[in-house]
Structures are given as C-alpha cells and as structure tokens.
UniProtKB/TrEMBL annotation:
<feature type="domain" description="FAD/NAD(P)-binding">
    <location>
        <begin position="6"/>
        <end position="281"/>
    </location>
</feature>
<dbReference type="Pfam" id="PF07992">
    <property type="entry name" value="Pyr_redox_2"/>
</dbReference>
<dbReference type="InterPro" id="IPR036188">
    <property type="entry name" value="FAD/NAD-bd_sf"/>
</dbReference>
<protein>
    <submittedName>
        <fullName>NAD(P)/FAD-dependent oxidoreductase</fullName>
    </submittedName>
</protein>
<dbReference type="InterPro" id="IPR050097">
    <property type="entry name" value="Ferredoxin-NADP_redctase_2"/>
</dbReference>
<keyword id="KW-0285">Flavoprotein</keyword>
<keyword id="KW-0560">Oxidoreductase</keyword>
<dbReference type="InterPro" id="IPR023753">
    <property type="entry name" value="FAD/NAD-binding_dom"/>
</dbReference>
Amino acid sequence: MTAEAYDTVIVGGGPAGLNAALYLGRSCRRVLLVDSGDARNMAAGVMHNVVTNDGADIADFRARARAELAAYDVTFRDDEVVSVEPDGDHVVTTTKESGTFRSRTLLYAAGVRSELPPVPGLADLWGTSVFECPYCHAWEVRGKSFGVYGGVVPSECLAATLTVWSDSLTYLSDRRELPADERERLTAAGIPTVTDEIARVSPHPEGVAVELADGRSLTFGALFLHMDTEARVEPLRPWLRSGDLESVQTDERGRTALPRLYVAGDLGKNMQQAAMAAASGGLAAMAINADLVREDRPGSLPAPPPPASS
Ligand SMILES: Cc1cc2nc3c(=O)[nH]c(=O)nc-3n(C[C@H](O)[C@H](O)[C@H](O)COP(=O)(O)OP(=O)(O)OC[C@H]3O[C@@H](n4cnc5c(N)ncnc54)[C@H](O)[C@@H]3O)c2cc1C
C-alpha cells in the first residue's frame, strides 16, 4: 500500500471535483484528484452557461483548471478508482493502475451516466443534434423545428419549455400511451403528438431525420429528450449499505451519513449543470475543511447544522 496520506481524495475531475480541489488547495489541504476522463458532457465538445466560459471547449476547460491547480498541493492521477472503503479514521481508495491511497476524507464527484432510449441511431447524434438540456443547447438551434422524444421518459414539460426557442415542435411518443395529464399539458402548449413507432434516427442536412416504422420520415433541426440517469457509484458499493447515494446524503454541503464521505456534482442534490456542479464542489470542500478543523481542534467549531427537512 502506498503510504501517502492525503487530507482528501477526490474521485472525479469534472467541474465539481476540480472546483473542490481549488477550494481545498487554497485551504492548505493536501489533495489527490483521480479522474478517468470520460465526462458526461464530452459528447457535446463545448459547454454553455458557465460565465466567462460560455462555449468553452470541455477538454480545454479541464486542462486550464488543472493548470490553475498547479499552484496548490493538488496531485492528479489519470486513472479509475475501483473501490473506496473506510478504514478506521481514514479512507482507502484503490485505483486500477496507480495503487492504493489513504486519506482523511473522500469527496465522491464521479457524476452520472445518461441512459439513451434504445432507438437505433440516437447514440451517434447525441450531443450534436440530439440533446437533453434546452439551456445548454437550444440557443444554437433556435428558430428551427424541434422533435421532442417522449417514448420512454415523459418529456412534455421539456417540450413546453422549448416553445421559447421554437414555434415548431412535435412530440414523438413512439407508441407509448400518454396519460391524460401529459396529453393535456401538450394541448395547453399547442404541441402536436405523433404516436407512431420510430424505427431509427439518422443525420440530415437540416439536423436529424426521424424514420417511422411505416416508412415515413420526419425532419427536424434538433431532437430533444429527457433521460434516465445512472449514478456512477460502483466503487462505493462496499461502503454504501443501501446501494444508493441519495439515501446517505444528509445536507446541502454534500455531507453524507457516512463519516468522511462527501458527495458533489451531478450525484448530489443540485440541478445537473456544470456551474451548479462546480458550486456544490466548493460547498463540499468547505464542509470537509470545517470538519477537519473540528477533528483537529475539538470544540473549536459548533457542530454543523442539522440538514433541512426536504
Ligand atoms: C451532452 C451533454 C451536454 C451538456 N452540456 C452542458 C452545458 O452546456 N452546460 C452545463 O452547464 N451543463 C451541461 N451538461 C451537464 C454537465 O455536463 C454536468 O452537469 C457536469 O458535467 C457535472 O459535473 P460533475 O463534476 O458532477 O460530473 P462530470 O462532469 O460527469 O465529471 C465526472 C468525472 O468523474 C470521472 N469518474 C467517474 N467515475 C470515476 C471513477 N471510478 N474513477 C475516477 N474517475 C471517475 C469521470 O471520468 C468524469 O471525468 C451537459 C450534459 C450532457 C450529457
């Protein structure tokens, strides 16, 4: 086992983990950040809605963040964490290639995976003409016609919101029977529904072609949809008794019910946006720093406030 003991190991080098590293580095903390490099938004190439970084290349954003962190005691490992477990007053983090590390606290900021519906062709267009977040992507395709796929996860509220960016919207239910309230909301928003089965989607000079099972084809400037997401918590499994993070996160600063384990970013309680993820990383870092002060100087700080009941 590598003998290095860090104040905090951060799992995940997205906006949440990077901002937490900045806060902790600037708090004179010794930090190790391990990142496997497959960010959720990489398919889009650029990110929006991050002030001073609107339209920034995602890889470049990450590289600049790392360069800034060189001023502090932050070490990076491009590696995958395979397990994280408590060991007395430390946490033991095991990586695929770099070995095992001990730390006083662990910030888990590994993000989530988006689960695309099983429509052939969708994955190839994800991030370029198939999108989820209107705030991230609709400006670039404003004024064009939009399809909104609601075949797996109901997306009528997304469709209604998109009326801000387009007045030509079609809801595609892909044979899913819509409950009355979903139909009523679409009617209220003035959005027609096509209920036919979708065979595949494919690139089109205008954006995206949606091929129906009966051979007809519909063309849109972009396709939007809501998706299920899966938390990337595999390395935490031995530590999480219940199997899900939601049940152990206790406060708005990313503290969990498990001592020394904190969460931030898309995995946490915040909206799944880069700026919010970064903000939650900062909050978690401040909680970690304060809790380490509490441990080193007992009685010097009051206990953290109890979590607000949701
Ligand atoms: C296609 C798309 C486009 C988007 N565009 C925008 C946008 O324009 N603006 C915006 O605000 N938001 C956008 N988002 C949302 C945004 O990407 C997320 O909210 C944000 O990236 C979350 O940051 P995070 O740090 O929590 O997680 P992530 O950015 O997903 O980073 C998590 C990191 O953890 C690493 N990791 C995971 N598991 C492990 C492991 N076991 N060991 C080591 N490392 C691990 C991953 O490699 C990854 O680098 C978009 C999302 C998608 C899907």
